[in-house]
Specification:
Chain lengths: 177, 200
């Protein structure tokens, strides 16, 4: 059995964006993110009918996370270089005012933040993306990462602390301008 | 009257600053951190950095699924069979020999035929051995013949009629065509196995 086509199309329309977003920021590579997203959606087509509709979002996050972590492990084995997302993706920071100077400062910080994200260990990176970019609750993140809520808080704290260390110099420079 | 607060060391402030930025501290803890900020410039800068990093992270966009990915997925799904061979089951009246067993029996029968084909270099077998092998071969071919006729009918009717050709069905149909070409028309499907032979 497979998912019904109209159910599959509805899930892709609702959740395709979040799958691709998580893959993109975790892998920092458009090509790899597209490959992983294809793999996840095909798996949805084959196994999605086994998942309760109200749990399909969490299932997709978990499958995407696992596929990305597999890809990152493969990269470590191959010791290849990764394409920088900030060089290849035209990121438009949300909720920014029309002030060009502010936008310029924001773009500079935005690119550095994405690069700094790529320096975090996988679990910290994933927790930060899920919380800060995709707005998941601690409970939802604990289900995706398969850790307790208290561990989610610790993981997030460590990730954010490391990001602050990476970005301190840029922040101080921008603030002085 | 000012509220008395406990002093907060800087390391504790750095541990709590994220929760403060997330609005998760209670009023007492917030008061403690606020009091600490009044006398610690470094922690004030740490708070400012934490707020800046959090706001930059939250400003990063979600990215739409590229159309190329959606097209590629739709293409692969279109090529996927809507029914697999295991789902094309014959009705309860039939008890089909599993395809893998039928194929194995057919291969065994052909191997036996090749081995028994007369050759001056091959060892000679007794008449009894040859008759036993012939019985086994006739039985195997009879079962395969019966099973393939039934399977062929079902597969052609349901697979082709439904417009679905699974990979395994294609392979199975190639096996059917092969067996059809080599099947001996004089083989009788009503042969009864000897008492020592196990059933399917």
């Amino acid at each position: 059995m497979r998912m019904r086509r109209r159910d599959f199309d509805a899930v892709v329309a609702t959740h395709g964006r979040m799958v691709y977003t998580l893959a993109l920021y975790l892998l920092a590579s458009q090509g790899d993110a597209e490959d992983v997203t294809q793999e996840v959606l095909i798996r949805l087509w084959r196994r999605g009918h086994e998942v309760a509709p109200e749990r399909i979002g969490g299932w997709l996050f978990r499958v995407t996370k696992n596929a990305c972590f597999d890809e990152l492990r493969q990269r470590r084995r191959n010791s290849g270089s990764t394409e920088s997302i900030s060089e290849s993706v035209d990121l438009e920071p949300r909720d920014m005012g029309a002030d060009p100077e502010r936008l310029a400062r924001t773009s500079q910080l935005g690119g550095r933040i994405v690069r700094a994200l790529g320096m975090l260990p996988e679990a910290q990176r994933c927790a930060v993306i899920l919380r800060e970019i995709q707005g998941l609750s601690y409970r939802e993140i604990s289900e995706v990462l398969d850790i307790s809520e208290s561990n989610v808080r610790v993981t997030l704290h460590r990730g954010r602390r490391r990001l602050r260390e990476e970005l301190r110099e840029v922040h101080d420079h921008v603030a002085a301008c | 009257m000012s509220q008395h607060v406990d002093p907060v060391v800087c390391s504790e402030f750095r541990d709590l600053v994220d929760a403060w930025v997330d609005g998760e501290l209670d009023a007492t803890e917030e008061a403690r951190l606020t009091a600490h900020l009044a006398s610690c410039v470094d922690c004030g800068e740490e708070l400012e950095l934490a707020v800046s990093v959090a706001s930059q992270l939250r400003a990063l966009p979600e990215v739409d699924l590229p159309e190329s990915v959606a097209v590629a997925v739709r293409r692969k799904i279109r090529a996927w069979p809507t029914a697999t061979l295991s789902e094309l089951r014959p009705g309860p009246r039939f008890r089909p020999l599993p395809a893998a067993v039928a194929a194995a029996v057919a291969i065994a029968a052909m191997v036996i035929l090749v081995i028994l084909w007369p050759s001056p270099d091959r060892p000679q077998f007794s008449d009894r051995e040859i008759e036993q092998a012939a019985q086994q071969t006739r039985f195997a071919l009879a079962v395969v013949n019966s099973a393939t006729r039934r399977a062929e009918f079902e597969v052609k009717r349901r697979v082709i009629a439904d417009g679905v050709v699974a990979e395994r069905a294609r392979g199975f149909m190639r096996t059917l065509d092969f067996l059809d070409g080599d099947r001996n028309a004089s083989v009788a499907p009503t042969f009864s196995p000897s008492p020592n032979q196990k059933g399917s």
